[in-house]
Amino acid sequence: MSRFILMLVFAATLAVILIDGFGLDWLPVQIEERWSYHAIAFALMVFCARLAFPRTLIFWTFTYAVLLAIFIELAQGLLPHQDMSVIHVAANIAGVLVGAVLAQVWRRQVAPRLVSSDA
Description:
The chain is an all-alpha fold. It has four helices and no strands.
């Protein structure tokens, strides 16, 4: 059940990143253009992806997330009323790194303790 919830959070985070990244105006809230929001969104997405899909190698999760981060910013340079930002690319990649590290720490340190305390 918890893996299903992680999949839902991953899908929702990915949807928000894509919708906001391509400038669609039907989000219920306007996400402010701060680099920290970019980093947090990508960290949450990678963290949930690593835990929801444990058989996927970290290399592929990292590669797909970095490519998504770069693609979104490049696409924003092509859209009207949007501009590409190198700072946002760096924040996205930093978020990918943080999310991957947090997921590894969770899987190695926290998850075994939760399993052993349930027994």
